């Protein structure tokens, strides 16, 4: 925490969050949705769970509906927070998502339109004012490294026509922005959460590059700095074709995910590996439930909501696509309810 904000300043919002935790969906409620006989029963369940705006008969609108639900909740919580950095940690990813969306729209010569997520620090009106991703850096009051990321991503995409390389460059600025935002809050808990995110994305990157047969030189160009697991150690595992992966992460919260990653290198399921990476972040935040007030329970609640939105999307889109219930259950992320 900074000198200006103390944990007692979170007393009111912590109390609100404790009350709102009672409305988080449970495993039993997810199961009811998965087992619903038809769209009508599914819609009635969503209504009773407080998500009447989600319409299973129109899966093409679900992303927009979930985005609207997210935006409403973030705005509600923002009005009670003494330190905006607490909420910014959840908003920043949408800023960088929007930059990527604008770049791709530029490349296809179409409007970004529905690709933009109005959940970041930068309002949609500002994005539309820019018109193109390359113009974002020229706008005043652009937060963090967003303008630099937009410019670099545009230059890479214009030169190489490779959206993956452009996304990699933008992601590096994203995680730098994310970590510095957390560090400015002086919250060890918040910094730990961001560092764990960086470790998780580096673990995912390592496993994917090994499965694709990419070498350590390629990996060096895509790893993100700032995690607790050093990039040099990850490169050593890469040069050893994955040997030592589980041992490297054994002392960390990602130990279980790394075991699944090692299995994925020998034919195991990537979906299980991805799920365990997400579950490690949920487990880190679940410890905050033991803290009576401060930024920790607020962060944990916001992250639990993100998990809930992810699970709703998995269930509703899965059912709409005819995915078997057992497959949907296996994809769900762990919450703390």
What is the CATH class of one domain?
Answer: Mainly Alpha
Assign an overall shape.
Answer: globular
Radius of gyration: 20 Å
Order of helices and strands: HHHHHHHHHHHHHHHH
CATH topology name of one domain: V-type ATP synthase subunit C fold
Low-confidence stretches: none
Count the beta strands: 0
Mean pLDDT: 84
What's the assembly state of these chains?
A: single chain
The biggest beta sheet reads:
none
Helical/strand content category: mainly alpha
Distance between the termini: 27 Å
Estimated helix fraction: 55-70%
CATH superfamily of one domain, please? V-type ATP synthase subunit C domain
Strand fraction equals under 5%
Please tell me the CATH architecture of one domain by its name: Up-down Bundle
Please report the number of helical segments. 16
Characteristics of this structure?
337 residues; mainly alpha; V-type ATP synthase subunit C fold; globular
What does this structure look like?
This protein has about 325 residues and is an all-alpha fold. It has a domain at about 85-185: V-type ATP synthase subunit C fold. Helix content is about 65%, strand content about 0%. The protein is built from 16 helices and no strands. It has helices at about 10-20, 25-35, 40-50, 60-80, 85-110, 125-130, 145-160, 165-185, 190-210, 215-220, 230-240, 245-250, 255-265, 270-285, 295-320, 325-330. It is globular.
């Amino acid at each position: 925490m900074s000198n200006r904000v103390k944990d007692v300043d979170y007393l009111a919002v912590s109390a609100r969050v404790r009350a709102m935790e009672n409305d988080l969906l449970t495993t039993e409620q997810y199961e009811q949705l998965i087992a619903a006989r038809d769209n009508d029963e599914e819609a009635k369940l969503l209504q009773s769970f407080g998500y009447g705006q989600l319409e299973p008969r129109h899966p093409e609108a679900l992303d927009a509906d979930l985005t609207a639900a997210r935006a409403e909740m973030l705005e509600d919580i923002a009005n009670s927070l003494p330190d905006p950095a607490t909420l910014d940690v959840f908003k920043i990813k949408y800023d960088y998502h929007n930059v990527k969306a604008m770049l791709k729209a530029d490349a296809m010569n179409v409007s970004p339109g529905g690709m933009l997520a109005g959940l970041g620090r930068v309002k949609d009106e500002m994005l539309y004012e820019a018109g193109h991703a390359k113009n974002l850096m020229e706008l005043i009051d652009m937060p963090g490294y967003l303008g630099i990321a937009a410019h670099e991503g545009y230059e890479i995409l214009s030169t190489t026509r490779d959206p993956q390389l452009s996304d990699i460059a933008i992601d590096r600025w994203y995680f730098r922005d994310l970590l510095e935002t957390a560090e400015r809050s002086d919250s060890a808990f918040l910094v730990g959460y961001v560092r764990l995110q960086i470790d998780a994305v580096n673990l995912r990157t390592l496993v994917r590059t090994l499965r694709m047969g990419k070498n350590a030189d390629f990996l060096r160009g895509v790893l993100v700095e700032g995690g607790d697991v050093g990039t040099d150690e990850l490169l050593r595992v890469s040069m050893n074709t994955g040997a030592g992966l589980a041992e490297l992460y054994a002392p960390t919260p990602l130990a279980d995910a790394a075991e699944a990653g090692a299995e994925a290198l020998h034919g195991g399921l990537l979906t299980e590996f991805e799920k365990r990476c997400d579950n490690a972040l949920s487990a880190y935040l679940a410890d905050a439930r033991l803290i009576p007030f401060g930024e920790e329970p607020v962060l944990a609640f916001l992250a639990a909501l993100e998990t809930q939105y992810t699970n709703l999307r998995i269930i509703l889109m899965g059912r709409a696509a005819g995915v078997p219930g057992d497959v949907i259950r296996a994809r769900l992320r762990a919450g703390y309810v």
